[in-house]
């Protein structure tokens, strides 16, 4: 879904908010989609924006690639846009052929969220999704908070509660380019390490086959770290979808929200990003469908950025055999929380008065 000009005029004007820390790092957020639209790190060589974003709010409304958005109710894909819970069959909105992607045609990335700023370094977004929204059961209440710490961490906390049984899988869809969103260096030139022993094979339209496959001796083995472009498109799995768009199952001994589960490094090594999370999987997406997307400083093209989205595995609601740890199903009136922390490591820009 993309907004028409008339719809844009009818919408309440989205709010934009900036969080800063004492080191000179700054992130910019918007209430449209509870989105993370800018991340400026103060390097010794100058300030650098390391996530992709639209040049203005009008263009942000037009883009359909989820730039920095909070996506849901269910991130990733639901096969054939249907599932069954306690004998009740549900059909939800389809927006990728016959399948449901990131919550359907009118998913959370298109909503204007309420916003609060309790401190200069924290913002809280709130949204209520009504019963039957996009076909999903239950009324869902969500809070998503962003905090920028003095140690250059961007901590995203998710809190939600539903009035009925149903799947919920929230994540952030930021595209990272640690060389700078204005750089011609691509996601394929970044170094990546992910502590994941298995990945989910998928069909041509990105739906998991149900198998969990050992990453050993496959292109999906990032345990020791390697350049994303190494082994790129050299197997049928990647060729199905034009690159990486696969869930990596994280080492469950590390998903405590404190230990690092993944590290992304810039092409020349001057910026690193460590990720910690309480979620069991990470969707690695190499930006395969970034085609002529209006960006802050240039037009983004294929592989301009990489998404590292922490979440439950895709289509988990249709695979109870994967186990409770990987199940996105919530119980009524129970509060659920999750957290993902992005810590940026870099040489500072010192300003001499």
TrEMBL record:
One of its GO terms (molecular function) is aldose 1-epimerase activity. The keyword Isomerase applies. Gene3D superfamilies: 2.70.98.10. Its EC number is 5.1.3.3. The keyword Isomerase applies. Pathway: Carbohydrate metabolism; hexose metabolism. It catalyses: alpha-D-glucose = beta-D-glucose. Keywords: Carbohydrate metabolism, Isomerase. Pfam families: Aldose_epim (PF01263). CDD domains: galactose_mutarotase_like (cd09019). Belongs to the aldose epimerase family. NCBIfam families: PRK11055.1 (NF008277). This is Aldose 1-epimerase. It comes from Providencia huashanensis.
């Amino acid at each position: 879904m993309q907004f028409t000009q008339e719809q844009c005029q009818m919408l309440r004007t989205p709010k934009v908010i900036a969080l800063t820390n004492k080191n000179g790092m700054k992130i910019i957020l918007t209430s449209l989609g509870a989105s993370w639209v800018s991340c400026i790190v103060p390097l010794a060589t100058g300030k650098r924006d390391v996530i992709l974003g639209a040049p203005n709010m009008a263009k942000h409304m037009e883009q359909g690639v989820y730039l920095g958005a909070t996506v849901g109710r269910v991130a990733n894909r639901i096969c054939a846009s249907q599932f069954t819970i306690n004998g009740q069959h549900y059909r939800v909105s389809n927006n990728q052929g016959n399948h449901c992607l990131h919550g359907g045609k009118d998913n959370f990335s298109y909503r204007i969220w309420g916003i609060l700023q309790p401190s200069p370094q924290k913002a809280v977004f709130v949204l209520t999704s009504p019963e039957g929204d996009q076909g999903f059961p239950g009324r869902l209440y969500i809070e998503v908070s962003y905090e920028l710490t003095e140690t250059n961490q961007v901590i995203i906390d998710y809190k939600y509660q539903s009035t009925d049984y149903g799947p919920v899988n929230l994540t952030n869809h930021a595209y990272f380019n640690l060389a700078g969103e204005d750089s011609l260096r691509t996601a394929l030139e970044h170094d990546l390490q992910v502590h994941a022993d298995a990945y989910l094979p998928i069909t041509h339209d990105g739906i998991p086959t149900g198998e969990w496959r050992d990453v050993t001796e496959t292109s999906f083995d990032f345990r020791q770290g390697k350049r994303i472009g190494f082994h790129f498109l050299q197997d049928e799995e990647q060729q199905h979808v034009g690159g990486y768009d696969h869930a990596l199952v994280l080492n469950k001994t590390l998903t405590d929200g404190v230990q690092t589960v993944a590290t992304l490094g810039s092409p020349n090594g001057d910026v690193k990003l460590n990720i910690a999370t309480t979620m069991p999987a990470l969707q690695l997406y190499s930006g395969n469908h970034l085609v002529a997307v209006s960006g802050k400083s240039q037009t983004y093209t294929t592989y301009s950025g990489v998404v590292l989205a922490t979440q439950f595995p895709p289509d988990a609601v249709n695979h109870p055999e994967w186990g409770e740890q990987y199940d996105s199903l919530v119980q009524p009136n129970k509060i659920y929380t999750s957290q993902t922390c992005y810590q940026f490591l870099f040489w500072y820009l010192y300003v001499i008065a």
